[in-house]
Amino acid sequence: MKGKVTVHREFSIGEVDKRIYGSFIEHLGRAVYGGIYEPGHPEADEAGFRKDVIGLVRELGVPIVRYPGGNFVSGYNWEDGIGRVDNRPVRQDLAWMTLEPNKMGTNEFVQWARRAGTDVMMAVNLGTRGPDAARNLVEYCNFPQGTAWSDRRRNHGFAAPHNIKLWCLGNEMDGPWQICHRTATEYGRIAAEAAKVMKWTDPSIELVACGSSNSRMPTFGSWESEVLDHVYDYADYVSLHLYFDNRDNDTPNFLGKSLEMDSFIKTVTGICDLAKARKRSKKTVHLSFDEWNVWFHSNDADKAIEKWTVAPPQLEDIYTMEDALVVGCMLITLLKNADRVKVACLAQLVNVIAPIMTETGGKAWRQSIFYPFMHASQYGRGTVLRCPVRVDAYDSREYTDIPYLETVAVHDEAGEALTIFAVNRNLTESLALEAGIHGFEGYRFIEHSTLHNPDLQAVNSAGKETVRPERAAPGTLDGGTLRATLPPASWNVIRLGKPRS
Fold it and tell me: pTM for this one?
């Protein structure tokens, strides 16, 4: 099979906002307790944070992490997680039917984030709480001193403000599963009022309003339109959430699902721009795709978990080779929409539908999906280039015209580097890639890395890494034409650049 691509320096989509390589930690399962925080572990530091996990988070290059939820936040009293740890209450978490000991809270998470080299994207509770609790949390985190909440933070041992700049106005408030689920009008009103007082407390912050929980919600579209009528003047982003599964064991269909993600993005972009026109506004609201991943492997196991325990092993999907391909296609889709998607969070980061897994008291290890995310975060910084593709396509049960080649290029002008990310969706045939490279005189072929395993159900474990990247046969760049071979069902990273003296 052959695929032809044009990569031109002037075919720009937009600049990559590094925050599209964000992730997510919720008080759910073993994400916090046993994940990032495990006092007594051989790798724990003096604060109880696992240094092996921090090392893997740094390897991923995650610039921002959303916290503390997720469904959890809609029933969370943030005041439970500050002050002396031994005085904090144990609460029922109604979102996930567990017990929350509140050993980790706002200050501890900020500490962890700094050690992990990342920023915090904080969510406020607009379920059981409202504007007053939200603005108090902003004051606690961001106001320097001289007020009740800022001085309380200082008394808790944090003299300098945390300066958290990105805030979520609740979570999935369109979902009936959400604690204090609201209609679009109810949510729009409370989000607008919370946004006002939060920005009055700290005018430097940015806010994310809740969009639809997924593109198949019955209120999708009408929800965004109504909410934006209320919050357009205050919100900087609208959220999108989407998870994919392969419960039907239909791999060709599964590999085409990123087309649905692309359609979701373009539809919400259109709704945002319609709201802009209605309001005659000069402001553009961008998108925060702050939950996305593959999620379905753990569904049956989760039904057997005992309720009202602390940190049970919930949502612990073990990811396959084909899951890594879907994640790769989703990363490429985010990059193709870099002009409007400015924030994105792989959900989640550790143990809970995550690229990083841990054993309690034992090892931390990389899942198959770790590698596409790491590659994109490492090499996908700069200007995204639109790459016209000529390749055969196929139809699946749900989608039509799925191209066998999914690809995008990112140009790092300062680093004089050009990276092509590509997924070959063909399950049986290699793909002979021919790319016309225009406007990159003096660039040379550097490396072709591929993630490929003939067994699409291959997984990694603490003891064995079956799915890991390897160097592919070297490609060639001659006379402005790049040639490379993409193995069947593979994720590929092809790097070009100018030789360093």
Answer: 0.97
